[in-house]
Amino acid sequence: MKAGGTQHFDDMSLADILSDVARSAGLTLAIDPQLAEVRIPYSLRWEASPIDFASRLAAEHGGIVKPGGEKLSVVRRGAGTDASGADLPRIRVKRIGSGGWNIEGEPRPRFGEVGAAWQDPKTGRRQIAKQKAGQSGPVHNLIHPRATEAEAEAAAEARARELNTQTASGFFVTEFDPTFSAGAIVEASGFGEGVDGEWPSERISTSWEKGSPVLSTIDVTAKPDKAQGGE
């Protein structure tokens, strides 16, 4: 799973590439249908483990890799869905009965747009595909150029959504429920302005202590399509 390796992939779908990578690690792939169809003209795995390469490639197209058991699952960032594309059961938390919470804005640089470069084969000139990032500020330019305009647009959009999730984060503590699943949307109510609303969950940890209520701590981020404090 952690062994490095070098491969290149030409004009393949994201599902085909990640299926090959998962197979090399002895895993089977489960991937969101929207991500599965993404076409990638060229991709290079250079001295990277299967999980590192899969994580990077998925992130460039708005996905998150979740290895577990004998599967490599790839879901859309902040969508509240599983690897089949189906909605995960929502997690509803209320201030009354809550075991605690904390939501804070992140002191990160704010960007107005994300730019990704690509080479126009007709003119031979370098072009920039841009995507709104939901904030006021300068352009955040991606380092590596993309092979096509479509790939550049996808990379810029994925990074913009990722930047939005970084504008706020925190946690809610609530009574344990076996139906909770990391990645589900948390619906918060009764906490007040700036906290009430929808929050994509990232991790769920549960504490078990004899004689005490079983509580789950749900780590959340801002939604990828709406930056906290954006204008």
Structure at a glance:
The protein is of the alpha+beta class.
Notes on the protein architecture:
This protein has helices at 14-24, 33-36, 50-59, 149-165, and strands spanning 7-13, 28-31, 39-45, 63-68, 71-76, 91-94, 100-105, 113-119, 126-132, 139-141, 168-175, 185-189, 197-207, 215-221. Helix 1 runs antiparallel to helix 3 (50-59). It is built from four helices and 14 strands. The longest helix is centred in the C-terminal third of the chain and has 17 residues, at 149-165. The protein has 231 residues and is α+β, with helices and mostly antiparallel strands. The protein is globular, with a radius of gyration of 19 Å. It has three domains: 5-76, Phage tail protein beta-alpha-beta fold; 91-106 and 167-221, no CATH class; 113-166, no CATH class. Residues 203-231 are annotated as: Disordered. Residues 203-219 have a biased composition (Polar residues). Pfam families: Phage_GPD.
Shape: globular
Q: What is the name of the CATH architecture of the largest domain?
A: 3-Layer(bab) Sandwich
CATH class identity of the largest domain? Alpha Beta
The tally of beta strands, per DSSP, is 14
Radius of gyration: 19 Å
Label this structure with key terms:
three-stranded mixed sheet; 231 residues; alpha+beta; single chain; globular; Phage tail protein beta-alpha-beta fold; 4 helices
